[in-house]
Please model this.
Amino acid sequence: MEKDNLPVIVGIGEICEPVPENIINAHSIADLGAFAAEKACDDALSVAALAKHIDAIAVARTFSDSVLAYGKPFGNIKNLPRAIGKKINCTPRYALYEQPSGTVTQTMVTEFSDRIVSGEFETVLIVGGEDIANTKAAIKAGVSVDRSYDDDGQLEDRGVMIPGIISSQELMNDLTPAITYYSLLENGRRQALNLSRADYQAQIGELFAPFSQVAATHACSMFPKAYTAAEIATASKENPQLTDLYTKAMVAKDRVNQAAAVILMSEKKARALGIDESKWVYLHSSCTIKERILLEREHPGKSPAAKMAYQTALSRAGLTQADIRYFDIYSCFPIAVYAACEALGISPTDKRGLTVTGGLPFFGGPGSSYSLFGIVGVARKLRENRNAFGLVGANGGYVSKLSVGIYSTKRPDGWVHYSDVSLQKELDSKPAPRIEDHPDGEAEIVSHVTTIRNGTPERGFVLGRMRNTGDVFIAATDPKDAETPQQMIASDPFGETVFVTSAGPGNRFTFSKEKTFSLVPKKKDYFRDDYEYCKVNVNGHILEVTINRPEMKNSLSPYANEELEEIFDNYFSDQNLWVAILTGSGDDAFCAGNDLKFSATGQKVWVPPTGFGGLTHRVHRNKPVIAAVNGFAMGGGLEIALACDLIVASENASFALPEVKVGMIAGVGGIQRLTRQIPVKIAMEMILTGKRISAKEASELGLVNRIAEKGEAMSVARELAGEILEGSPLSVSCSLEMWHESNQYGDVTTALAQHSKAVDRLLTGEDLNEGVMAFVEKRKPDWKGR
Model:
């Protein structure tokens, strides 16, 4: 690093605007960002003096570009950084549009400090904000104003999603609204403290009342009103109860029109431009750590990542919490603040105060950009108190990502590039609970939340632990179940027993075994005369199943999968059925996989516990299933075929796993089975490129047992089934059972050394004696299958 390449914040700016009376006059996010950028430039020198020197503009992604529900009544701004730059006559050589997360403004300051030190940039403009208040007002008024901006200039767009923040189980069980998720975490903390709801709510009131008082006097506050602790903690018409724990005054409010900006520059450049050194604020240290997903956390109410991030940032600066005069701690929900306080070892009512803005419930919650206002506010305080240090604590996701920055006007001795990789590895290496993807049976409530609408308990959610295994899961009450949420409000049921089922859309629970399973549509324990998605035919000891959706290329919706699950449940339990054949209707398609048109409707997509087609996840299978592939088997269709024991393919059949071409993965057996059934390199080519292979190629690779003429796959499959029926059904069943048993072991010798229940079943069955006697008597065996 050159002696004077030390990075320094030289300009700060922020703006807040009410919704105009005439929404047509509303400013877009590009306008607001430009206003904040102008203020930051003017704070340092002036827009005219600085704009031409800006090498890079970095912008935090807006919620309207991340969440479709917000809509875009002002049109689409395809390159927001350059749109902001154009409004201040700035054409940077580099533009960045960051991911959406409450930590990104702090991490951008850290990143570009590094890049300034390396000499890549000299002057960087960092901007963040939201126009959600204007957006919602325009949508409500039915107004559309075209403020689109299209710029094909350079843009590094880092995308919409941050991996590792949420699990598929949380998505499947509707635990995605922040208020629901955070209440679950908060209740976990409350349970650890052994506090009643009322006592905990009173503590939240004491925590947040000082925040509201700061917001009430802040010039850029969207909601400048001071509240008493009791007003925050007590539900009322103006302050409705939103969950069993949170009132409206306790949660972030995103209906804002706010933007903030900082100018980050090398000392060399700042001196060359003559920027007053009394405005300089240095980043002394930072640390960014990602927490595990909820189901992998040791405790829902604790954050080891927060402790690591806060303590590391202080240590790198050579400070303790006692050296910090000004704090701005991310406060979307109370537990985010409590986690920071516990990490710092300070009281939630510390007299120094925990915010310089007023916090997200009172100052406003401008999406991913809130902590940029914290940096602006802390920098302003430090300019006034030049011997002090300030701390900005940012939070992203669900206390999922923590980023901490330490600031001061005091010049550090130098710049150290710290990597947080080793810290992250240390955190990730700690033991984690085992996740149960298909919970069924008795479980203990670890934490819970009940949502409330118009004063009425609406839906309950639990983080649970299975009584028999200790594995953890997420479950929700059935949307039609009004009784269980009422019970949860009445009993505050930590540690209580619930009964959970994974049958149906998501995991569902109640406090009664009978009620839980009454919510599951009762499956028929016999073959119906008529199915909606399939046709079934029993031909002696052979079951023939046809997926009957030719107009949809025999693709499967969740309801079709459930129908197939019921059919195969009955096949495996019927002692008179010894072989099953599965095919598709028509000559074009065996199965095209998941019904993407159903998925596009926005309805919940799920797979039953036995998997796609009722087969891919099915365990304890001891009867053969033949796939009669009468056309293409794509995606889930190939995964079903791979789960079958034998495959007959018509000469026009083809096989592929094209999931990567539509942003998905072959995760219900394709990846796992194809790599075991054909050479790995060929399998990986199919998985990674979506390559399609013909029936002939599949046969040469050993994937297909027999090839039939077009239209004859079912006939050949029947011939193969007939050959199987010539042997003992019990022997066939025990052979399959032993094969499944041996798959648990890595080598043949170990597998042979294990006691086999299949052998026990064979030796005590009737078919063994019948086979021997028929051989001796030179007659055809009369198999019983038992």
User: Anything to note?
Assistant: DSSP finds 27 helices and 25 strands in the chain. The longest helix spans residues 197-216. Residues 106 and 728 are 69 Å apart (CA to CA). The radius of gyration is 31 Å.
